[in-house]
Amino acid sequence: MKITRVEAIHLRLPEVAAVADGTQESLLVRIDTDAGVSGWGEIVSCSYVAKAVIDAPRSAPFRHGLAAVLIGRDPGDIDELNKLLRETTAWYGPGGVVGHAISGVDQAMWDIRGKAAGEPVRRLLMPDSPDEVDCYASVLWPDTPVEVEASCNMFIEGGYRAVKYGWGPMGADPGLDEELVSTARHTLGDDIDLMIDAGRAWDATTALARARTFERYRPRWLEEPLLPDDFVGYCKLAADSPVPVAAGEVLTLPEEFARLTDTGVAFVQPDLGRAGGVSGVHNLARCAPDNVDIVPHAYGTGILLAASAQFAATQPGHLTEYTRSTSPLARDLIDVDLKFCDGQLRLGDSPGLGITVNEDVVRRFRYRE
């Protein structure tokens, strides 16, 4: 089997608001083969720049575009191709947007491998992996406590067992921060987990003060309270915080994750659209210390959701993020072989990532300059 085409597909809503909702815009990767098998992946990055990383023609050594390197090669040789992609982009990689683009390509190659083998990706990674994973609903913080209450009630009625609220107004006003968290906890009750995503709003001193305030509301974790590379701050926070700390969604390279795990955070959250795809995050998990839970960050389309759920099935915690954005790119783009029931995603037996792309949605939202 040989790769015949690598296509970067940029999707964008007609209006993109200045809010932390990555489902307003997506960059997909489609890889076609001469065997008629195609694979899909999702890149979580600046879509315009990442598309150029894929589309760029061959150039001087170590600065090629990914598509030019992949054409004519066997997509089943995933480890060798990942190594080759790193080598041929060494002049402007390996981290940042180059690593993001490779992540989407890696997902697509695993999708192809699973389809060729007739198996879901999780069973290629771990043959005895379960057929369901726990999940938490993930949305932005509403602006007011009244809206938080309405949102929580919707998730209760929907059968969710865990909910994460993030970004939005969180961070600027300590009084409003506590009111939002208090409303969420009191509405959800004692039996539903609450996660708080602070959206990198604070320094370590402020984050510790907020954690001590939030402790009484029993959040499962406090996510991304600091800048992604503030490893010194995370050391201080993880040592003293009464609330478990989660971080890592922006990191790309293994050495960055090694520094993060050394800080003592309880949950590490690699994004399969940034941190090397299925291969990269699987390798990170194998190297992670026993006292760290690996929970994939997955705020995107159904491609990222599917890839993350397949990976999560191989982890001891069996937990993944479940984006509940109303964007059509999150809701309508992909038909996924997943069923939500009683706080879990039940994974089907469809091969690869178990997805079908809605080509009408692609045509509707495809961005062209």
What's the short version?
The chain is of the alpha/beta class and 369 residues long.
Description:
This protein is of the alpha/beta class. It has two domains: 3-120 and 360-365, Enolase-like, N-terminal domain (Enolase-like, domain 1); 124-357, Enolase-like C-terminal domain (TIM Barrel), CATH 3.20.20.120. The chain has 14 helices and 15 strands. The protein has helices spanning 47-55, 66-70, 78-88, 96-117, 121-125, 145-158, 174-188, 204-214, 231-240, 254-262, 277-287, 302-312, 328-331, 359-365; strands at residues 3-12, 25-33, 38-43, 132-140, 162-166, 193-197, 221-223, 245-247, 267-268, 293-294, 319-323, 334-336, 338-341, 344-347, 355-357. Strands 4, 5, 6, 7, 8, 9, 10, 11, 13 and 14 form a ten-stranded mixed beta sheet that branches. Helix 4 packs across helix 11. The model has no long low-confidence stretch (mean pLDDT 96).
What keywords describe this structure?
Enolase-like, domain 1, 3-stranded antiparallel β-sheet, TIM Barrel, single chain, 369 residues, 2 domains, 20% strand, 14 helices, 10-stranded mixed β-sheet
- CATH evolutionary superfamily of the largest domain: Enolase-like C-terminal domain
CATH architecture of the largest domain: Alpha-Beta Barrel
What Rg do the Cα atoms give? 20 Å
Q: Which regions are unreliable across 5 or more consecutive residues at pLDDT < 50?
A: none
Number of domains: 2
Average residue-wise pLDDT: 96
Q: How many angstroms does the end-to-end distance come to?
A: 34 Å
The arrangement of helices and strands along the chain is EEEHHHHHEHEHEHEHEHEHEHEHEEEEH
Structural class: alpha/beta
Q: Which percent range fits the helix content?
A: 25-40%
CATH fold-type name of the largest domain: TIM Barrel
- DSSP summary: helix tally: 14
Instruction: Specify the overall morphology.
Output: globular
Strand fraction: 15-25%
Report on the biggest sheet: 10 strands, mixed
* CATH top level label of the largest domain: Alpha Beta
In total, the number of strands is 15
